[in-house]
Amino acid sequence: MKKKSLLTLENLSDKTLDKIIDLSFKVKNEKEKYYKTLKGKNLGLIFEKPSTRTRVSFEVGMHQLGGNSFSLSPGQLQPGKREPLKDIARTLSRYLDCLVLRTFSHDSIVEIDKYCTIPVINGLSDYCHPCQALADYMTICEKSPKTKDVKVAYIGDGNNVVNSLLMLLSRKGVHFTVASPSKFAPNKIVVEKAMALSKKSGSTIEICKDPAQAVCEADYIYTDVWISMGEESSKKDASVFAPYQVNGDLLSKAKPGAYVMHCLPAHRGQEITDEVIESDRSIVFDQAENRLHVQKAALIHLLT
Ligand code: CP
Ligand code: NVA
What we know:
Elements: H1 14-29, E1 42-47, H2 53-64, E2 68-72, H3 74-77, H4 85-95, E3 98-102, H5 106-115, E4 120-122, H6 130-143, E5 151-155, H7 160-169, E6 175-179, H8 188-201, E7 205-208, H9 211-215, E8 220-223, H10 248-251, E9 259-262, H11 274-277, H12 284-303
Helix pairs in contact: 1-12, 2-12, 4-5, 6-7, 6-12, 7-8
The site of norvaline (NVA) has 9 residues, from helix 7.
């Protein structure tokens, strides 16, 4: 049987996507039932960038399913220096049952997956963040049982998080509008794919520059950092994002009662104000919690 991996949402079938989402609700609501599901299985995690949510939720999730987890530091493994990445991939496949990777370049994840004989999960790359989008969609389903009527507006940088949201929301019939400065609009190829998918699902995908236009009639306002991990020393000019701050004024232009989302970590005073992220409209910790449940579901799907 061909091994399964979770590198992007593009290569998950509709059936698999629905299976993971359904299972996420089951593992959340019937936690005890899954205590031994992955007994004896071992998960490795390699993070080239910092993490709080992804690392802890994968490790805790694996333990809650009866398995073990191991954090492997890139400093110890020294890929490309001590030995080629492909040798690390083939060696780890002899010990572990699954590998979670957070890398700078998405190509590294693709390369490792090519040589691993075990499932590989993308825990964020410069291209996408599939586990985050799954948790975000689960959170939206919890708040809005009829997701087909829902509009999500994303305000800010057209980054890895947006790429995964585009790939998921366009398939699930959720209306999705992105407002970004033109220089930082989302990846054109991903937008084209999302637009094609939206025709089948009945959602609408809109890319614009005006945050006020994007949030009009929105049920959810989502934002993320303007400078992602790995871009700190680049010449990216964060000042162009100033009109894209999610603040009280922008929130007042959305539907009354609209929810505010952020994948975290947040830079208060930049992409979002402290007042908005601390307000009762904010569901950022529900999103963070749901990382645990969707990732447990993904692990069960990949390992059983
Ligand atoms: N949202 C997210 O992936 O958080 P971490 O960077 O803390 O893992
Ligand atoms: N876009 C952010 C997401 C962090 C979870 C980054 O890549 O740093």
